[in-house]
Design goal:
By secondary structure, the chain is an alpha/beta fold. It has one domain: Aldolase class I (TIM Barrel, Alpha-Beta Barrel). Helix content is 35%, strand content 13%. It is built from twelve helices and eight strands. It has an eight-stranded mixed beta sheet with strand order 1-2-3-4-5-6-7-8. Helix 4 runs parallel beside helix 5 (149-158) and helix 6 (171-178) runs parallel beside helix 12. The longest helix has 14 residues, at 120-133. The relative contact order is 0.12. The model has no long low-confidence stretch (mean pLDDT 97). The protein binds iron/sulfur cluster (SF4) (2 copies). One iron/sulfur cluster binds at residues 59, 179, 309, 314, 316, 319-321, 324, 326-327, 330-332.
């Protein structure tokens, strides 16, 4: 497949069908260049040499890496540039084997972003070279869960471990937060968990207060438990960020309650992490907009998230970034937050 898959791009579930080699742009707004945003040794488990790829196929309101996910649309978007796959593979092995790499316990190259699926042919080339250089160190692929079936199979093929962000179970909440439907994500979990559980490092669930209510958390947990009760699940504390920069952080009791719910439905490996309790307050103007969106999303938490999107200019509700007429000039992608966390 390789770079040919960029000619009629269907790498992710948007299946835009654009010719990225000719410079056509899909929802991710990335041409064929596999731009790297940054690279560094990273202690967060699994400790690794992490390669952050530029660009993303989602437009998450809470994006922590908005400056690399929304390059080149965002005025503060940034990228590092291009690198030969062989050179990157050798560099990753050398970095893992430095004193610092050994000290933090790095044992793999870790592809993150943005969303690395957008640059899957490049990731495959790097991994091919990496496997030639080492048979000791491993490969992790970090995904938002939106690859096509075919891309998901390619990811399973190349990765020793997968970290999977599961953002919501309800379509309304998922669309409000990301701009994308949830069905492909659920389908990928249904494929991965029963057949490739050994590759799942962790399913990560970021909890945003008022958006993820108890019913939403329970629905996510039940979905996962029905697939396999042993799947590792980690709830992450939302930090006020990007379009949600004024929203309150996840309180400790929400994180503890989520772990309780997970255990109630049978999940055996549930935990939480992050920094709870960061201050924030929902602006009254967002609450007013949210009131008008409850019927559209059928969920109060989704409507609240969508209220923030509407406040910065997103006018398509339910959000759907493929069919949105403003997809190429999206106000969410262009948003520059005042607060940095
Ligand atoms: S959004 Fe997905 S399908 Fe569309 S061009 Fe980007 S990677 Fe390809
Ligand atoms: S304006 Fe359109 S493209 Fe931008 S986030 Fe909203 S739905 Fe998606």
């Amino acid at each position: 497949m390789g770079r040919r898959s960029l000619r009629n791009c269907k790498l992710c579930a948007w299946e835009c069908g654009v010719d990225r080699v000719e410079g056509e742009l899909g929802v991710c707004r990335m041409d064929a260049r596999p731009l790297i945003a940054s690279k560094q040794l990273h202690p967060a488990p699994p400790a690794s040499y992490t390669v952050f790829m530029t660009g993303c196929n989602y437009r998450c309101l809470n994006c922590q890496n908005w400056d690399i996910a929304h390059y080149p649309d965002n005025p503060e978007g940034r990228t590092w540039g291009l690198q030969d796959p062989r050179e990157l593979a050798v560099e990753a092995v050398n970095m893992i084997e430095t004193l610092e790499g050994r000290r933090i316990g790095a044992d793999r190259i870790f592809f993150s972003g943005g969303e690395p699926t957008v640059h899957l042919p490049f990731v495959e080339e790097v991994v091919r070279e990496f496997r030639r250089v080492t048979d000791v160190w491993k490969v992790n692929f970090d995904t938002n869960g939106f690859p096509t079936r075919d891309s998901m199979r390619r990811i399973v093929e190349l990765a020793d471990s997968i970290t999977f962000d599961f953002k919501a179970f309800s379509d309304g909440v998922h669309r409000a937060l990301t701009g994308a439907p949830v069905e492909p994500v659920l389908r990928n979990l249904e494929f991965l968990i029963p057949s490739h559980l050994n590759k799942i490092w962790e399913v990560r669930v970021l909890l945003i207060p008022e958006v993820h209510d108890e019913a939403e958390i329970r629905a996510m947990c039940e979905f996962l438990a029905d697939l396999d009760e042993t799947v590792p699940v980690c709830f992450l504390a939302f930090r006020p960020n990007f379009v949600l920069e004024r929203h309150p952080g996840a309180p400790l009791d929400l994180l503890e309650r989520a772990v309780e719910i997970a255990r109630e439905v049978g999940l055996m490996n549930a935990s939480w992490s992050g920094l709870p309790g960061l201050p924030g307050e929902v602006p009254p103007s967002v609450r007013r907009r949210a009131e008008g969106l409850v019927d559209v999303y059928g969920h109060r938490g989704a409507a609240l998230a969508a209220g923030y999107a509407a406040e910065v200019g997103c006018s398509k509700h339910p959000r759907d970034c493929l069919s949105c007429p403003r997809s190429g000039s999206c106000p969410v992608k262009r948003y520059v937050p005042a607060r940095r966390t």
